[in-house]
Amino acid sequence: MTDVDLASRTVGGAVVAASDESFGFKERLVDPSEPAFVPGTYDLRGEVVDGWETRRHAGPDGDWAIIRLGAPGRLHTVDVDTRFFSGNHPTACAVDACTLDRTQDPAGPGVAWTTVVESTVLKADSHNLLAVRDHRRWTHLRLRLQSDGGVARMRAYGEVVPDPALWSDVTVEVSGLEQGGRVEWCSDSFYSSAGVLVAPNRPHNMGDGWETRRRRDIGPDTHDAVIISFAVPADLRRIEIDTSYFVFNASAEVSVLGSRSRPDREHGWGRVAFDVPVLPRTRLIADSRQVFPVDARAVAALRVQAYPDGGIARVRALGVPTEEGLAILRRRWERS
User: Fold this and answer.
1) What string of H, E and C letters represents the secondary structure of 3-70?
2) In terms of Cα–Cα distance, which of 104, 114, 22 is closest to 68?
3) Residues in domain Allantoicase (predicted)?
4) Which residues of the chain are in CATH 2.60.120.260 domains?
5) What residues pair up with 82 in beta bridges, in sequence order?
6) Is 93 helix (H, G, I), strand (E, B) or coil?
């Protein structure tokens, strides 16, 4: 649960240019939803596809699409998802990356692209997971197809590298996905993933939240839990617990504990002590955004405990990075 899709439209990703999109729109590549396909459904472009699909006969250079990452950062894996494209999937692809200023044109002739995934044969109707070895911070990706064809989605999994200049002397949503916040673990995700708790957008329905199975072993301390880590330690000022759209199944109560520690390589988060009181056990209102003032210093991660089970849309922790935290951010930025 640690890597984030840096290209997703959820965090502001966009497809800014493509060589062709005759059969399927390029913007579909970064759609956060799963691809779907209804055979035999046609419009004026042909059979309707949920993905980016180019015309036949692209020529020797193949087709390409350029994606602006919504949250620039270090890449670990790229998923070139060809689901529902079988007789029309590309033969192979490569992935390039670059780092640009906000107003630079990524399709311009002077862009210095670095190949981060060499040309790789693609499987039809499949996830194609491609490892990225160059872990510098990137702002844009270019998907280069060896041929024409169709790709349903492109996911760019990695870690956000925040700009320290944007954190200086301001209160930051340190838990937010765009700022390097990550859901590291949860006790249960039976109905929906806990990963959406740190999404930057407002929830749009009950499926856009964290919902666990109904607990039947209810006692005074029965609860589900989720661990959210921050990019760097921060002094917390506000905690928001949003139960929007959870009308009849919202968590009844919540408590929040903090940790000043990080996991070691051997034991992970299972051995980390959450011993900093952030928010005492508090009654929640269904279908509501609820903000609580807090004062917790130098917190690096949160354990949010939902009683007796989980029905929460978003968790937002707002605070000011510590001096040590800002120093860590600057070193990370300089290395990237």
Assistant:
1) CEECCCHHHCCEEEEECCCCCECHHHHHCCCCCCCCCCCEECCEECCCCEECCCCCCCCCCEEEEEEE
2) 104
3) 12-160, 180-320
4) 4-160, 164-332
5) none
6) strand
Assess if CATH 3.30.450.20 describes domain 4-160. no
Other beta carbons within 10 Å of 58: 18
- Across the strands, what pairs with 305? 225, 255
C-alpha to C-alpha distance for 94 and 130, rounded to whole angstroms? 9
Helices (H), the chain: 323-335
Residue 249: both structure tokens together: 């199944």
Rg (CA), the chain: 22
For residue 4, list its beta bridge partners: 158
Report pLDDT for 246: 95
Q: Is the pTM of this model over 0.85?
A: yes
- For the structural domain made of 164-332, what CATH number should be given? 2.60.120.260
Beta partners for residue 77, in sequence order? 131, 157
Burial 77-92 (b: 16+ CB within 10 A, else e): ebbbbbbbbeebbbeb
What does the pLDDT look like over 215-249, one tens digit per residue?
988 788 899 999 999 999 999 999 999 999 999 99
Rounded CA-CA distance 230/209 in Å is 20
Which pLDDT value is given to residue 105?
94
pLDDT at 168: 85
Dist. CA 186–CA 194, nearest whole Å: 7
Q: In Å, how far from its chain's centre is CA 198?
A: 9
Looking at residue 2, its pLDDT comes to: 67
> Which residues of the chain register pLDDT less than 50?
none
Which pLDDT score is estimated for 234?
Answer: 97
